[in-house]
Amino acid sequence: MSKKINNANRFILTISCSAAPGIVAGVTSYLAGRGCDIVESAQFDDENTDKFFMRLVFKILENSTHAIEEITSGFSDVSEKFNLNWAIHDSSRPTKVLLMVSKFDHCLDDLLYRYRKGELFIEITAVVSNHLDLRSMAEREGIRYVYLPVTRENKAEQEAELLNIVNETGSELVVLARYMQILSNNLCSQLHGKAINIHHSFLPGFKGAQPYHQAFERGVKLIGATAHYVTSDLDEGPIIEQSVQPVSHTYSSDELVTVGRDTETMALARAVKLHVEHRIFLDGNKTVIFK
Question: Looking at the domain assignment, is residue 183 inside a domain?
């Protein structure tokens, strides 16, 4: 189970819309008028796309007569005035996350450790895999393990079953923790903005098999990993987090693999944390992230 984190009476308001004057004043005035105290706020006006993004954390004061349900329903007046895309998230509720793996265990192991220690405020709904290798790792944590072997003939059927599991468990985020199968365009579309992948390279970089061995042959001086949202364009989705590590000619290919594993776990964990804390906004093929 997710470790308890004291986020009671903390709510996160996320907003994206076309840039316009008065948005910040309108939002903050509305909350203040309903007995709310703003404890954190960040906003960004993208002059290149003329879009506005805002993340705001507030709490309801003890002497307020307004409940969160009333505050949420009443916010529609502000939303209509500025044509906002918005949501209010309860910080006391962990995000439901489904993990997908194949045979590599380092990313799963790292996420399970951070989950167990309470570093990630999530509820892991299941671990889905096209192999049985990591079953014991999940089940010793009391987490459901679903085996969905994928072939060319059953790919569509297994992806449909994956979506059934996502819906059945109410999973809000799917994390590809070194899941070594390419998702179909249809599945990528249905998981738009709700699926994170870790790429074994500092994008753009070496594609295909044995990327660290390719890097070794080219004598690279930096290696890294990139966490990004999944899209139908393979490994080209909006980038969330990147981790790099300096290396030199003294590193063997096996040593590069070891360093690479570290960069992958760090980038993926940071990306998951940013997502579940509602700090990421999609801006076309880019991301706006309030850290």
Answer: yes
Structure tokens at 220: 């690279």
Distance CA 226, CA 204 (A): 9
In a domain, 283, yes or no: yes
Same domain, 130 and 167: yes
157-211 pLDDT tens trace: 999 999 999 999 999 999 999 999 999 999 999 999 999 999 877 654 566 677 7
Residue 227's Cβ-side half-sphere holds a number of Cα atoms within 13 Å equal to: 28
Q: Residue with structure tokens 């709700």? A: 194
Query: What range defines the domain where residue 82 resides?
Result: 11-90
Tokens of 291: 């850290």
Q: Are both 46 and 60 inside the same structural domain?
A: yes
Beta bridge partners of 196: 175, 229
Domain's final residue, options 90, 109, 135: 90
B/e letters for 178-195, b = 16+ CB within 10 Å, e = fewer, are bbeeebeeebbeebebeb
Backbone angles phi and psi of 205, in degrees to 5 = -160, -150
Check if the beta carbon of residue 265 is closer than 8 Å to that of residue 247: no
Active site residue 50: no
Question: pTM of the full predicted structure?
Answer: 0.91
Mean pLDDT of the chain, nearest integer: 92
Q: Residue 226: phi, psi to the nearest 5? A: -130, 125
20-35 per-position pLDDT tens digit = 999 999 999 999 999 9
Residue from 46, 235, 262, 283 carrying the catalytic annotation: 235
Of 75, 90, 105, the residue at which a domain comes to its end is 90
